[in-house]
Design goal:
CATH superfamily of the largest domain: Enolpyruvate transferase domain
Number of domains: 2
CATH topology of the largest domain: UDP-n-acetylglucosamine1-carboxyvinyl-transferase, Chain
Bound molecules: ligand EPZ
Helix content: 25-40%
Shape: globular
Largest sheet: 4 strands, mixed
Number of strands: 23
Strand order of the largest sheet: 21-22-1-23
Radius of gyration: 21 Å
Strand content: 25-35%
Structural class: alpha+beta
CATH class of the largest domain: Alpha Beta
């Protein structure tokens, strides 16, 4: 098992390039199954979650080649439509392989993804959408077996704008007979990126990012010779929060400010200066104390992203005053609170509401990452704390951040990756 060892108190200075978006790359890699051919996808981040998706695709019969951040996928020979259980359990979001396999092969078997550290990862909206398109779904023990001799376009109203369910339905509907409308879909930028990739495959998808997505089914799809994934907005926001916590001045390249409006608004509110220049952002913070924020509510895009909740809590834990956060997206995404309290933070949690009483500083401690974003938050806390912090179980962090310690070292942080014997 590996850990990060961090000596706090170092301000960050320098310029970094933001990685491609994990949450855009994963559904787009799955969507490549929709069409026979050789697809090339660029700016795919090198992450554990991408490794798992590549393993799944390989087990299904896709010939995958990786060259740095470019992945080529030969999807002409698919041998199986059963998603391996042991791989699915490593990455629940692989549930959106159902859509493409159902659309092209009329059958797919997956295992129930089950809950995880941030909450119950229900899939009822995925099932409801695929059934509405005509899929017959059977649950046998821990498996879900789906069959659909044909998929027929229809209107699907989502009770909740689930990102994964929206993506599953979009992909399944690309080859359905007729038109499908998804009402109240997720509007994240990663949904728009998926729409753009599907249209490069020859699909007819429109409306992503709005309250209604329309998919006109087509008979055939073709390969995509080149596609570039959008930048990772959550990774960019994490580094913006890092400067807010440590002080200093950094420049981020390969960012889309429009994807970060809510985060930028709140960073301004706490007293961090941000300048945008197309796909370059400069973030700086002087040594004035950060200001508390009365209330932050996480919500589906374009609201404040739940994937930034833990990182922002660290910022607020050393701000001047009392802040509150309400986590409305996941039912138990506060596992980082206990760890932050052990570092001297003053935080009270009551259900989905966290109240943060700002303190002057945090103290270095041994802490444990519980999930991807909580782990990143603990690294940020370690960089702000006095003394040494060790973050254990950093494989969680490697799921979503490409070489985090190397990037932070380049910005001046004192952080090392160590292997625990
Ligand atoms: C995606 O997960 C992201 N993952 C998550 O990022 C992100 O936190 C989440 O969207 C919300 O923005 C990927 O894109 C790979 P949801 P997903 O379906 O699709 C409930 C990260 O850190 N729900 O929008 O699983 C569900 O229980 C990860 O990169 C149902 O009730 O999110 C949850 O409470 C973490 N029924 C809420 O909706 C369903 O059928 C949001 O889930 C589906 C979801």
């Amino acid at each position: 098992m590996e850990s990060f060892v961090i000596e706090g108190g170092r301000a960050l200075y320098g310029t970094i390039k933001i990685q491609g978006s994990k949450n855009a790359a994963l559904p787009i890699l799955a969507a490549s199954l929709l069409a026979e051919g050789i697809h090339q996808i660029d700016d795919v981040p090198r992450l554990l979650d991408i490794d798992v998706m590549v393993q799944i695709l390989t087990r299904l019969g896709v010939d995958v080649k990786r060259e740095q951040n470019t992945i080529s996928l030969d999807t002409r020979t698919i041998l199986s439509t059963v998603v391996p259980e042991e791989l699915m359990s490593q990455m629940r979001s692989s549930i959106f392989l159902m859509g493409p396999l159902l659309a092209r092969f009329h059958e797919v078997t997956v295992s129930k993804p089950g809950g995880c550290a941030i909450g119950e990862r229900k899939i009822d909206l995925h099932i409801k959408g695929l059934k509405a398109l005509g899929a017959k779904i059977e649950e046998v023990e821990n498996h879900i077996i789906c069959r659909a001799d044909r998929l027929t376009g229809t209107t699907i109203v989502l009770d909740y704008p689930s990102v994964g369910a929206t993506e599953n339905i979009m992909m399944a509907a690309t080859r359905a007979d007729g038109e499908t409308k998804i009402i109240h879909p997720a509007k994240e930028p990663e949904i728009v990126d998926l729409q753009n990739f599907l249209n490069m495959l020859g699909a007819k998808v429109s409306g992503a990012g709005t309250d209604m997505i329309t998919i006109e089914g087509v008979k055939r799809l073709h390969s995509v010779p080149y596609y570039q994934i959008i930048p990772d907005r959550i990774v960019a926001a994490t580094f913006m929060a890092a400067v807010g916590i440590t002080g200093g001045k950094i420049t981020l390249k390969n960012v889309i400010p429009a994807h970060l409006s809510k985060v930028i608004e709140y960073l301004h509110n706490v007293g961090i200066e941000i300048e945008n220049d197309h796909d370059i952002m400069t973030i700086k913070r002087d040594n004035r104390r950060l200001k508390a924020v009365k209330k932050i509510i996480t919500s589906p895009y374009p609201g404040f992203p739940t994937d930034m909740q833990a990182q922002f809590m660290v910022l607020l834990s050393i701000a001047d005053g009392i802040s509150t956060i309400e986590e409305t997206v996941f039912d138990s995404r506060y596992k980082h609170v206990k760890q932050l309290i052990s570092m001297g933070a003053k935080i009270e949690v009551d259900g989905r509401l966290a109240t943060i009483y700002g303190v002057d500083h945090l103290f270095g401690r041994e802490v444990v990452a519980s999930d991807l974003r909580a782990g990143a938050a603990l690294v940020l806390a370690g960089m702000a704390a006095e003394g040494k912090t060790t973050v254990h179980d950093i494989y969680h962090i490697d799921r979503g951040y490409e070489k985090l310690e190397e990037t932070l070292q380049a910005l001046g942080a004192n952080i090392m990756r160590i292997k625990k014997m």
